[in-house]
């Protein structure tokens, strides 16, 4: 894999980062001890296996360097001094060692993962890290994965990171290490475009610029010069991070979807809205006059593009109806708003900030990143994203994967990001927050469970 320019959106993520606002996404994967004779496998063996498999993933050997052209640009280069041991570490936990969704090992692992998510990735190295979090050999353990957003969006992160699992690694060995599908060979052609190609490129560029102008105008109309949302969601940044997790019954979510119509994502967004309402009221906060806005990312990655180069994202803006006391009406309002967003499409509207970023030159990203980062608060209050995972059961060194909690980065001026994934019959929710702004993040996680229970209790009986 040779030199490869960062796509405009990747470059934007690279330059948006600061010490207080690291731009990495992540996942906390939790494993049970291996059954049978392998039950006593030690953490050091897991660490070695993880390093071997991570080192075999070509994308994880790439680092970012500045280039002369385009001016202000950067590119991916193979790190000739790559050493996987710089990226993978073991962190010990003390205390309870049983896998317990309500506490014990999970409480320690999530606390530690939150602290590790505070630390920016070292920019002179390939921008990723993995931590094996565990206690005594033969007990449960977790793997925290951190990938810079310039390296991966949610779907691409899954495609890259899946190579650490036994099942994916075995499939790769069966193919002789070759990718499942090879790119189609394109016959050589002249570097100088013909008249028809010039016309096509010009028309495409005009169309792209017109779309970007429309997105920019929508953003200006949607921006709030004086955002007055929930106090916790608009608190100033402390640079600290806290992680909490929730586990929702997928069958319960599907029952609600079947009764209400719409999509599973509509139901999950309504659950987030209801959980925020409950949490604000428990804190004694007055509900905001204006519904908090969620930025809901939408993948533009086509099937078969799993690990293809560059972030492929757009997003919708959604008002989370926390002021509506009726859970079913909240769900109805979310569904109506998302139907309206989907009818307009992901390439227009104020939420399509990524589409606008794709049209900006490299210098604009390099020097305009601080301004763009500060503008996030004027546009939205919380990020809510869904990350698809493989449906098949996975393992690492024979240790079954019990749960995966995705983690999204916090934009500048944001105190909370919500990420959701489905695995093992559960919807796994990862809540990443500013540690000082939301010290009671675990309460918000509990409120998500309570919202599901209330929606189930109110299911129509006819």
UniProtKB/TrEMBL annotation:
Q: Which SUPFAM superfamilies match?
A: CoA-dependent acyltransferases
Recorded metabolic or biological pathway in which this protein acts? Lipid metabolism; Glycerolipid metabolism; triacylglycerol biosynthesis
The O-acyltransferase WSD1-like N-terminal domain extends over: 6-267
Signal peptide positions (record): none
Q: Does the keyword Lipid metabolism apply?
A: yes
- Could you give a GO molecular-function term held by this entry? diacylglycerol O-acyltransferase activity
Q: Which organism is it from?
A: Streptomyces atratus
The entry's keywords: Acyltransferase, Glycerol metabolism, Lipid biosynthesis, Lipid metabolism, Transferase
EC number(s) from the headed UniProt entry: 2.3.1.20
Q: Which domain of life is it from?
A: Bacteria
Q: What is this protein called?
A: Diacylglycerol O-acyltransferase
**Mind telling me which InterPro entries this protein's record contains?**
Acyl_transf_WS/DGAT, O-acyltransferase_WSD1-like, O-acyltransferase_WSD1_C, O-acyltransferase_WSD1_N
Reaction catalysed by this enzyme: an acyl-CoA + a 1,2-diacyl-sn-glycerol = a triacyl-sn-glycerol + CoA
């Amino acid at each position: 894999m040779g030199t490869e320019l960062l796509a405009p959106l990747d470059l934007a993520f690279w330059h948006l980062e600061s010490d207080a606002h690291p731009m990495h996404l992540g996942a906390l994967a939790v494993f049970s001890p291996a059954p049978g004779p392998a039950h006593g496998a030690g953490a050091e063996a897991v660490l070695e296996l993880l390093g071997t498999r991570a080192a075999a993933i070509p994308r994880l050997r790439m680092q970012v360097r500045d280039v002369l052209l385009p001016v202000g640009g950067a590119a991916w280069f193979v790190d000739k001094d790559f050493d996987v041991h710089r990226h993978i570490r073991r962190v010990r936990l003390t205390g309870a060692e049983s896998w317990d969704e309500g506490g014990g090992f999970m409480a320690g692992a999530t606390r530690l993962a939150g602290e590790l998510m505070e630390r920016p990735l070292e920019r002179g190295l390939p921008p990723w890290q993995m931590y094996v979090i565990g206690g005594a050999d033969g007990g449960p353990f977790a793997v925290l994965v951190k990938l810079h957003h310039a390296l991966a969006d949610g779907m691409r992160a899954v495609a890259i990171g899946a190579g650490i699992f036994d099942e994916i690694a075995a499939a790769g060995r069966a193919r002789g290490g070759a990718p499942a599908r090879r790119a189609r060979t394109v016959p050589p052609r002249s570097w100088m475009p013909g008249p028809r190609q010039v016309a096509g490129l010009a028309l495409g560029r005009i169309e792209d610029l017109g779309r970007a102008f429309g997105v920019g105008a929508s953003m200006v109309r949607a921006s709030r010069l004086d955002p007055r949302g929930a106090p916790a969601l608009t608190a100033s940044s402390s640079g600290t991070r806290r992680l909490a997790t929730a586990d929702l019954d997928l069958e319960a979510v599907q029952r609600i979807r079947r009764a209400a119509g719409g999509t599973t994502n509509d139901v999950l967004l309504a659950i987030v809205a209801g959980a925020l309402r409950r949490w604000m009221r428990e804190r004694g906060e007055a509900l905001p006059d204006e519904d908090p806005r969620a930025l809901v990312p939408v993948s533009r990655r086509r099937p078969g593009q799993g690990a293809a180069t560059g972030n492929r994202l757009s997003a919708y803006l959604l008002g989370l109806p926390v002021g509506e006391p009726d859970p079913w009406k909240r769900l109805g309002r979310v569904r109506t708003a998302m139907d309206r967003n989907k009818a307009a499409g992901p390439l227009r509207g104020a939420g399509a900030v990524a589409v606008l970023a794709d049209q900006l030159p490299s210098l604009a990203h390099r020097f305009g990143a601080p301004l763009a980062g500060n503008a996030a608060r004027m546009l939205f209050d919380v990020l809510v994203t869904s990350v698809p995972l493989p449906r098949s059961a996975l393992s690492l060194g024979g240790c079954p994967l019990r749960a995966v909690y995705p983690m999204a980065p916090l934009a500048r001026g944001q105190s909370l990001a919500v990420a959701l994934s489905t695995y093992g019959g559960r919807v796994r929710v990862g809540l990443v927050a500013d540690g000082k702004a939301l010290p009671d993040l675990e309460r918000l996680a509990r409120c998500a469970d309570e919202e599901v229970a209330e929606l189930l209790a109110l299911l129509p009986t006819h």
